[in-house]
Amino acid sequence: MNTHNLFASFQKNELTDRRFVNLNKCPACFGTSWCRKFMNGQISFETWGRLRFLDFFNVKNVYFAQYGEPREGTRRIVLKRLGSNQELMDIDQKICKRATGRPRCDLIQAMYKTEFARLNGDVRLLTPEVVEGWSDLVHCPSQRLLDRIVRRYAETKDSGSFLLKNLKDTERMQLLMTLAFNPEPLVLQSFPSDEGWPFAKYLGACGRMVAVNYVGEELWTFFNAPWEKRVDLAMQLMEIAEQLTNNDFEFALYLLDVSFDNFAVGSRDGKVIVVDAENVLVADKRLIKQNKPENWDVWYESKFEECDKEACLSFSKDILCSRVTVDHNYYAICQNLLSRHATWRGTTGGLLHDPPVEIAKEGLLEALLDECTNPKKRSGRFQAAKELREYLTQLSNNVR
Questions:
Q1: Model confidence at 117: pLDDT above 90
Q2: Which of 30, 82, 97, 388 has the smallest number of Cβ neighbours within 10 A?
Q3: What are the respective helix, strand and coil percentages of the chain, to the nearest 5?
Q4: Closest CA to 180 of 267, 106, 82
């Protein structure tokens, strides 16, 4: 790349380009609520994000950007295309195949011939039988969950209603496409950080570019932080597992992809937040209690499996959907982040590696982590997770 092209890359704000943000593909997109901000030049890539040749290394299509508001000044945000270039091409081909039987077509025309468009204005509610199994979020949806998703849909001016007929045709198609392709924005909208859920804050979308709040550094950067800091982070991770499993709303949110990359730590408050919510399965405990499927009230223990890959978990989505009491989140956090079984980027030992001599000698921490990961007693993980939360809280209080 010559100097002139390099300079031009720094000068140009590609986020004002309709084609670059794929606004030209709407309604086969994620929304338009932030398009004015994009087109007005209020959002710009941070330095290296402007160099397109670096996109080759940015497989996940996640960018850091600056967002400016006249009264609030400038702040850092994260932009996501919600898929790799290949995954985005695949969705175009799928839409074309559903509509025409061929992999290439006029995408906008094709959208109007898919199931995303068939739910016309006469349909009052988005119902489970229409979308069940489209993605992890709706692997086993209840009417209560779908009403919540529609009511909190942020890409419409008329949010607050769970009636589908109150959405415009294009908004309905965008909602359904997001639900089928990458439901992360809908998880962030339905379980918002403003209400205490441990997710990044959703800001808005333009075309196939979604904006979320910048939280802070990835959890991975704290792998070798001082012991006190790691204890605090581990305690918060176990609290997240508890909150997503047991809450007053009786929705169990199961994290199906748990790795150091999917969490970040608040730069100001030190709070741990889930920053990748694409693979979250939501089970409605009220519906399970009502329908009483086989063994619905038997506590379910996730099975530990030895694995030589990074961040692997074994689970059955159907079981997560049919039991009221499940230990999946404790298992996922303990195995993939905290215990000696956690492997990531060539390291082993987990976030709580190398404890101080007196803690290592006592042996309680290692015993609880082992039982939480690979329980030897019946219902051992449930008990170990509870005791581990209490023990980490005690350790955290002792070092303050």
A1: no
A2: 97
A3: 45, 15, 40
A4: 82
